[in-house]
Amino acid sequence: MSTLLILLALFTLLVAGVPVAFVLGGLGLLLLLLGGFSELMVPQALLGGLDNFILLSVPLFLLMSNILLKGGVGRDLFTAVQAWVGHWPGGLAVATILSCGLFAAISGSSVATAATIATVAIPEMEARGYPRRFVLGLLAAGGTLGILIPPSIPLIVYGFITEESVIKLFLAGIGPGIVLVGLFIVFAMVYSHWSPDYQRAAKASWAERLAASRRALPSVALAALIVWGIYWGVFTPTEAAAVGFAAAVLITAVWLRSLSWADFKAAVIHSMTTSVTILMIVAGAKIFGKAITLYRIPQDVSLFIAQNFSEAWIFILVVSLLLVVMGFFLEALSMMLIMVPVLAPSLVGLGIDPIWFGIFFVILIEVALITPPVGLNLYIIQAIGKAPMGEVAAGVWPFLVLMLLTVLLCYLIPDLVLYIPFKL
Question: Which residue, 19, 14, 398, 79, is CA-closest to 219?
Fold first, then answer.
C-alpha cells in the first residue's frame, strides 16, 4: 500500500507542474522524516550523488554542443551533406536526417540537434515542395537521435545510476542509431517519391561538394575522434568531453572563425543553466532513491515482477507500454531517474542484460521527446517553424512507429545492441 501511495503522490505532484527536482528531493525528504530516518541522509545522498567523476562529462558535453551550435556547425554539416545527397529522391530529407545523425554524434543533446538542423533545413525543404507537416515531423524526430547516438547525456546518467560502463553503453548505441537513421531515410525517400509537390534538387558540382566538405570536415573529424578515443580506451567519456569542448572552441573560433565572444558567453551561460537543471534533478533523484530503498520499494517491485512476470518478453512489453504512457506527462531524464532505480534490480533475475536494457530504455524515452503535451522537441520545432502544435504532432507519428519498430528489432536481434561493445 505504501508503494502505491508514494507513486500516487509522485505523479500527482509531477502532473501538477511542480519542478521535477523539487518533487523528487522534497518527497524523498518527507519519506525519510515520516519513516523516522535521520535527516543527515539527505546531505549524504547529495554528496554521494554529485561527487562522481562521470557526471563531470555532462556540463562539458553541453558546453561542446552549445559552442558548436553558436558557431554554425550545424549549418555547415547540412550544406556539406546536401551537396552530396541533395539530388537523390528525397535528397533534402535524407540530408536532414544524416545531418541530425552527424550533429548528434558531436553534441549528445536532442534539443541542440533539433534546434540546429531545423533552423537551416525548414526553409530549404519547404522551398523544394516538401509538405510542411512532414518537414516538421522529420526534424522533431531527427533531433531524438541526439540522445541515442554517442556521446549521449541520458546514457551517461543511466551508467551513473546502474554503475554500468558508460563506454559500453556508448558503443551499444551505435548499432540501433544506425538502424534508426536508415529507417528514417527509407521512409523519407518513399514519402518524397509519392509526394505530388516535391521537387528534386539540382546535382551539386564537384567544386561545390569539395568546398562544403572542407568546411564541415573538422566537425566530422571531431565526432570520429570522440567515438574512436572512447572505443580504443584513449580517454574516458569525461576526458572525451573535455577534448571535445577544447576542439569545438578551436574549430569554431580559429578554423571557421564563426564564434564571437558574445556567442561564447551565451553558450557558457546556456550550458550552465542546463547543467544546473540536470544536476539538481540528479540530486533530487538520489534523495528519492535513498528513501524508496529504505522503504524497500525496489525490492517489493522486483518481488512483484518475479511473481507475476516469469517471461522477459512480458516484462519488456509492460515496461514499454508504461514508458510510452509516462512520456505523455514526463520528460526523458525524469523518466529515467524515476524508473531505472526501481526496475534495475529485476533485470538479473529475468536474464536481461543491463547494457541492452539501457539502449531499450533510451529509445523509448526518445519517444517521450516527440509526444504531446510535454515533448520538448515538439516545442523546439514549433517555435522555429512558427507552426501550430497540432501540425507538428501530426507530422511526427510515422517516425514514432519507426522508433517503436527499432525497439522491436533490438528485442528480436539483441546483437544489434550488444555486438559492438562485447563482440567486435
Answer: 79
DSSP output for 216-232: HHHHHHHHHHHHHHHHT
Instruction: For residue 157, give the amino acid letter.
Output: V
- Tracing cell 522477459 back to the chain, one arrives at 312
Cβ proximity of 315 and 352 under 8 Å: yes
| Number of Cβ within a 10 Å radius of residue 362 | 24
Phi and psi based region of residue 257 (left: phi greater than 0; alpha: psi -120 to 50; beta: remaining): left
Reading the block at residue 210, the C-alpha cell is 569539395
For the chain of 424 residues, list the mean pLDDT of each consecutive stretch of 10.
Answer: 75 77 85 80 71 79 86 87 86 90 80 83 86 91 84 87 90 93 93 79 88 90 86 84 92 90 92 86 81 75 72 88 80 81 84 94 87 79 85 90 94 95 84
CB 61 within 8 A of CB 108: yes
Cell numbers found for residue 179: 538502424
Peptide bond into 373 cis (omega under 30): yes
Residue with cell 531545423: 118
Cα–Cα distance, 60 to 311 (Å, whole number): 41
State whether residue 379 is helix, strand or coil: helix
- Kindly report the backbone phi and psi dihedral angles of residue 192, in degrees, each rounded to the nearest multiple of 5, phi listed first: -65, -35
Q: What are the two backbone dihedrals, phi and then psi, of residue 328, each rounded to the nearest 5 degrees? A: -70, -20
Contacts of 200 (CB under 8 A, 6+ apart): 87, 89, 91, 128
Is the bond leading into 151 cis (omega within 30 degrees of zero)? yes
Buried b (16+ CB within 10 A) or exposed e, 114-150: bbbbbbbbbebbeebebbebbbbbbbbbbbbbbbbbb
| pTM exceeding 0.70 | yes
